Amino acid sequence: MSYTRETSDASNGWRAAAMGIVHVRCGPIGTAPVPRQEPCRAIRREAPTCAFGPSASPQMRNRRGLTCGHRARETPSVTAELRALPGPFTGPKAWTGDAMRATETWLDQLPDGMLDDLVRTTRRAASNGHTLATLTRSDFSVSDASRSRIAAWSDELAEGRGFVLVRGVPVSDLAANEVELLYFGLGLHLGVPVSQNTDGDLLGHVRDSGADPGDPGVRLYKTRAAQPFHTDGSDVVGLLCLQPAKSGGESTIVSSWAVYNAMRERRPDLAALLFEPFSFDLYEQQRPGEKGWFDTRIGNVVGDRLFTFYLRFYITQAQRHPEVAQLTEQQVEFLDTLDALCHELRLDMDFAPGDIQWLSNACIFHGRAAYEDHDEPVRRRHLLRLWLTLHRNSPDGAGYLGVDPT
Question: Is cis: bond before 395, omega within 30 of 0?
Answer without folding.
Answer: no
